[in-house]
Amino acid sequence: MALIRERLTHMLQRAVQDLLRDSGISNEQDLRVELEIPKISDHGDYATNAAMVLTKPLRRNPREIAQAIIDRMEGRHELLASVEIAGPGFINFFIRPEAWADVVRDIHAKADAYGLQDLGGGKRFQVEFVSANPTGPLHIGHGRGAAIGDVLANILRACGYQVDKEYYINDAGKQMQTLGRSLYLRYLEALGVPIDFPDDHYRGDYMKDLAREVVGQMGDRYKDTPEDEALPFFTKYAGDHILDGIRQDLEAFGVRHDVWFSEQSLHDAGEVQKTIEALEQAGYIYEEDGAKWFRSTAFGDEKDRVVVRANGLTTYFAADLAYHKNKFERDYDTVIDVWGADHHGYVARMSAGIQALGRKASDLRIILVQLVNLLRGGKPVAMSTRAGEFVTLREVVDEVGKDAARFIFLTRRSDSPLDFDLEVAKMQSNDNPVYYVQYAHARLCSVFQVAREKGVPCSWSVPPDLSPLTHPKELELMKLLGEYPQVVAASALQLEPHRIPYYLNELVSCFHSYYNQNRILGEEEATTQARLYLAAAVRTVIRNALGLLGVDAPEKM
RNA sequence: GCGCCCGUAGCUCAGCUGGAUAGAGCGUCGGACUUCGAAUCCGCAGGCCGCAGGUUCGAAUCCUGCCGGGCGUACCA
Q1: Does the keyword Cytoplasm apply (predicted)?
Q2: Does A503 contact strand B, using a CB cutoff of 7 Å?
Q3: Topology of A431-549 in CATH?
Q4: Which of A555, A172, A210 is nearest to A388 (CA)?
Q5: Could you tell me if A537 and A104 are in contact, meaning their C-beta atoms sit under 8 angstroms apart?
Q6: A231 CA – B45 C1', rounded, Å
Q7: Arithmetic mean of pLDDT over chain A
Q8: Strand A291-294 vs strand A285-288: parallel, antiparallel, or unpaired?
Q9: Residues A202-217, buried b or exposed e (16+ Cβ, 10 A)?
Q10: Distance (Å) from CA A412 to C1' B53?
Q11: ipTM score
């Protein structure tokens, strides 16, 4: 049973195509025919700009065109109560009220699968996100990236893409040496050896904790070992344990990556060298001042970039090129990178890189996540990684909760900076948008609980008669429920997870309003049955949408 | 200097890749619980969509130039 929007879209498209063909016009590609829900209910349940868009190719008055389109919409009387031509040439469609019930039956039939669809055709996507250096705990900025990447992947999966979530571990290079040495020094310090701790080492308290841990396990075994011999142990220990902590923090935040990819493994397998050779063969490498340069300007970058320094060492960018080459060799159709916006300067060169390696620019999509300003009571909280003064993601999750933190991160466009005030997040807990949504779910569960206690039937093998659903709020609810798949699809195509929380808010707001005006239980039996059936559909959609967001849908709160 | 992002209600932000009279939450003020959960609902107030041009039937949305804020501009990782 096709949904309202689909049926209407289909009908409209056929009419437009017929009209174009009859006018002797070949298929126009870039016709922006849209079917939207007007802001004002007087403008119909749906409206289209089709006639206005056709003004140019047809060279006719939009209102005339509108009438021609309507005349060509076959079978419209089954679905439409009326059609109007309005304003500059909008066509406003008024759906027969009883048709909306199809949406509710459809939701019951699909249940958990309502909202799932096949846009991707099984195409393989990879979403790489967080990828924080394993040199310290995750902070709140990582949390935002984690929420966005995780949910984006969920949404894409819901749309029929085959998606892997990946974390790139920067476990190579000088920083790891520095990390190991930081731990080594803290270790000695914990054993009472006087040390001089350099400014450019990792100063955070977590290193002291880790050092105490080593002392607990190893005692003074490395106290008299020469630094050169001791360092490999400390480097590995620090890297492993910090990464482990990151994994646990992500877990507590509801994020689980499918693949943890080591940068070091690229070096070990010689892939960095191979990548440079591949670029050389493609003619994009030249030498200058003793270094090897990648000609990224050939693809619109501002300047060329060094891949091998004069001292013979490869740059981080070279490893990143190898990494992306590797991604595509793993047969991903599209690769999505979620980066902090402070890395935006790297977009052009990375795009150049994959193009030089033979991929289309559109095969790599980079989402820039703006920074998070952490506040406490309106005042900025100092965030310095070097000095070790920062609030970790874990602390935030412990303080405000996983659900609230995720929801706050997701209820903003990623390219908009975000103020995250801990005090406000806690103080507001009752007015927090996430509780607003969760409350609706709990409320619905409660209604069903009461219904069961009263012996009112509330599970159906056959849909009840839905004709009692005539209240304006009921029609509005059904209309909104019917839009859910469309919202998920748009969210996937635009890579914009924030649309889901906004939709949820709208749906839930409508439900709360409805609930306050009407009783579900205790009405005449047919009415109660129809309303319960609708309520169950609302609950399903809330639960499905929250599921995409990785936010719990509690039955009680 | 150059590049990217952002300027929408007092505050925080949406505005669906050009549509009709620009929305929501918070905050202010005033209302609604003997009845399914008041963590809710209803109402009032609040705007030259940063400024100025341009594109067209139509601009918060697209283009150009300014103003203001953030970030970035390594043979660092």
Answers
A1: yes
A2: no
A3: Isoleucyl-tRNA Synthetase; Domain 1 (1.10.730)
A4: A210
A5: yes
A6: 67
A7: 91
A8: antiparallel
A9: bbbebbbebbeebbee
A10: 32
A11: 0.95
Q: Look up residue A190 and give its two tokens.
A: 């914990």
DSSP A126-169: EEE-----TTS--BHHHHHHHHHHHHHHHHHHHTT-EEEEEEEE
How far CA A105 is from CA of A37, A300, A329, in Å, comes to: 21, 52, 44
* Number of helices (H), then strands (E), in chain A: 21, 15
Extents of the domains making up chain A = 4-95, 174-245, 431-549
Please state whether strand B lies within 7 Å of residue A556 at its CB atom.
yes
What pLDDT does A58 receive? Answer: 81
Residue A88 CA distance to nucleotide B19 C1' (Å): 9
pLDDT tens by residue, A186-212: 999 999 999 999 988 998 889 999 999
CA-based Rg of chain A, rounded to a whole angstrom?
A: 29
What is the phi/psi pair of residue A67, to 5°? -65, -40
Write the secondary structure of A79-96 as one string of H (helix), E (strand) and C (coil).
HEEEEEEECCCEEEEEEC
Asked if strand B comes closer than 7 Å to A431 Cβ, the answer is: yes
Q: Is the pLDDT of residue A354 over 80?
A: yes
- Domain boundaries A4-95, CATH class: alpha beta
Using one digit for the tens of pLDDT, what is the confidence trace for A5-52? 888 988 998 898 888 888 777 655 556 788 888 888 888 899 999 998
How far CA A159 is from CA of A142, A164, A274, A496, in Å, comes to 26, 14, 36, 13
